[in-house]
Amino acid sequence: MTQALFLDDPYRKSSPATVTALTEEGGIVLDQTIFYARGGGQPGDSGTLDWDGGRIPIATAVKGEGGDIILVPSEPSALPPVGATVDQRLDWERRLGHMRIHTALHLLSVVIPLPVTGGAVAADKGRLDFKMPHPPEDKAILEGQLNALVTRDLPISVDWITDAELDENPGLVKTLSVQPPRGAGKVRLVRIGEGKDQVDLQPCGGTHVARTGEVGKLTIAKIENKGKQNRRVTIELV
User: What distance lies between CA 227 and its chain's CA centroid?
Assistant: First the structure.
């Protein structure tokens, strides 16, 4: 199993690691990684791997079997041998964009407290699909509420609960299309705010900024009809 360093420190931009396996498709498995593996609507991270005598650009990271994270090279190239020590470096600006947008989407689910049917994260924009039969009456009001949460500069923290505790609190899960990963015996929760100022708590394996103020100003770019019961709300960084 690859140790997912990004879960404990999403701000880590580089790290050494050891190659533990190479896949038949040319992917690289490390003993520990800072590269987020694609999931939950958030893309996998990109960056580079360096080792003695070689360098390779990484296009993305995906989940493998048994908890492995597989780094996917941008193009066919010589791979580091199993056992080699590598230096992994993120495309940090892209990752930071994902962190800001993913956090903003959690805030969007606060100002629109409806079931989420889908979502996607990019470095400069993101969207959530809501079970929303009728469009919001005033997009400007929603945008104001969203930016008000940002400017409150609320702290963001992580907790863990057991699978059984999640079963006892099904209201924590806002997404209808994607269920929290199970099987490891525990589920990661992302909390925005604390105490009486807590505004959100939901299962999430993605990367987030440390405070909402780091998100920056947002605009609701568009609200689209995506079926009889669905509306797609797209937000962008200003």
Answer: 26
pLDDT in tens, 51-66: 998 999 999 999 999 8
The predicted-structure confidence for 103-144, as pLDDT tens digits, reads as follows 999 999 999 999 999 999 999 999 999 999 888 889 999 999
CA dist 205 and 32 (Å) reads 16
Q: Give the model's confidence band at 184: pLDDT under 50 very low, under 70 low, under 90 confident, else very high.
A: low
Residue 175 burial (C-beta neighbours within 10 Å; 0-12, 13-18, 19+): buried
Length of the chain, in residues: 238
Nearest in space to 216 (alpha carbons), one of 157, 156, 151: 151
Would you put residue 214 in left (φ > 0), alpha (ψ -120 to 50) or beta? Answer: alpha
Across residues 176-188, what is the average pLDDT? 71
How many angstroms separate the CA atoms of 111 and 223, rounded?
Answer: 14
Q: Which of 198, 213, 178 is nearest to 40 (CA)?
A: 178
HSE-CB for 199 with a 13 A CA cutoff: 25
User: Do 33 and 214 form a contact (C-beta atoms < 8 A)?
Assistant: no
What's the 3-state SS for 165-206? HHHHCHHHCCECCCCCCCCCCEEEEEEECCHHHCCEEEECCC
